[in-house]
Amino acid sequence: MKYTDVAVVGAGSVGVACAYYLKQFSPGLKVTLIDSHAPLTLTSAHSGENYRNWWPHPTMKRFIDRSLDLLETIESHSGRSMRQNARGYLLCTASKHPDALLDNLNATFGRAVRFHRSMHSIEKDSVDGVDVLQGKTLIGNCYPQLGQHAQTLVHIRRGGALDSQLLANTMLEQYAQLNGDRISGKVVGVERDDNFKIDITSNNQTTVLRCQYMVNAAGPFAIALSQMLGVSLPLSNVLQQKVSFEDSAGVIPRALPFTIDLDPIALSWSDEERALLSADKAMQFYTGTMPGAIHCRPEGQGQWVKLGWAFNTEASRAVREPVLNDEFPEIVLRGASRLHPGLQRYVGAFPGRSVHYGGFYTMTDENWPLIGNTDVPGYLLATGLSGFGSMAACATGELVASLVTGDQVESYSDDLSLARYANRALMHEIAVLGDKGLL
Description:
Blueprint: E1 2-9, H1 13-25, E2 31-35, E3 50-52, H2 58-78, E4 83-85, E5 89-93, H3 99-109, E6 113-116, E7 130-134, H4 136-142, E8 152-156, E9 159-162, H5 164-177, E10 181-184, E11 186-192, E12 196-202, E13 205-216, H6 222-227, E14 236-246, E15 258-261, E16 265-266, H7 271-278, E17 289-290, E18 294-299, E19 304-309, H8 328-336, E20 354-363, E21 370-373, E22 379-383, H9 389-405, H10 424-433
């Protein structure tokens, strides 16, 4: 039998950050990080590796801003740049008057929302706030590669791409330097008496770990882990997919921000294609009007491009190797071609050099995380970070460490925990927004 003060179950970006900040806050604390596989090899390995401080509610914006502040601190102390680029997010819509979006931006960013009707007023090096570009002439001058669809562009400046693997490995290195422990094995049972008793199997052998605190950072397996303690979580796992491919024709400029087509779309099919899809119940969905939020960005240092589209809403059981939809690359390519017409050259002739991958979004209905205490003493959550775990990892780890060590917590702590469901005013605010910030 082994003993530790805190067991962190799950060694993805979030679990690593929890272990890291626990040791940063209290170096003498015994912390053990548990996972059945090598760190960062499940959901974190399939991360979109993007970050942005644009969220539909001020609480989520404060949370992510705090996480990005902490990321910058790690960068400065390590001498490593975790951000691959800081080109921001470019939200695109055909609406000339996207009132709901603009109202939300004003409520969240206040005076930092800047409206432009000419290129002369745009500060190219802005690192925060929001720039709103309206009118086809201005948009065409700034982004000539975009199609005629866009009438309004919203440029979220504090955003871009980050190297989540480098960030997590930097934290792992410092965690190890502070004598943080790791166990490679699968958690098969958890009991709670005066403390936690965790049964961990590896190579047909079982290790029993005793601890005072247990942190559930198990990603898609957080639901099953919590059930071992009889705690039901308001979470579901939804599979989302992405595809990266070599843009040999150089259609997507390398300096393009991370672009999102916000508008719903009906994909363009030939009569023959539509008939075939309509005859297949599993494919009929793709013949109607589909939700927006198709995203595209240059990938890496070469001519690669990454496309994503989180249109799936069906919950499924968590597995380590989910079955992907073979049609997804062609579907997302057709969708992305509306905003990026140059991509049409690849429709029906998808590039041979490509990578199709997917992972689970573990999410609450409102798409807010679950971080903090539960009704079981010593049992903490660090889960529900659907699609934004990499950018939120640092603030999640800080909050968990603060709760364990008794340090002062950030003002948003209750709002991100199970306690929010008892806050009727907050839940009403979230419900009326209508936008979950899901990408």
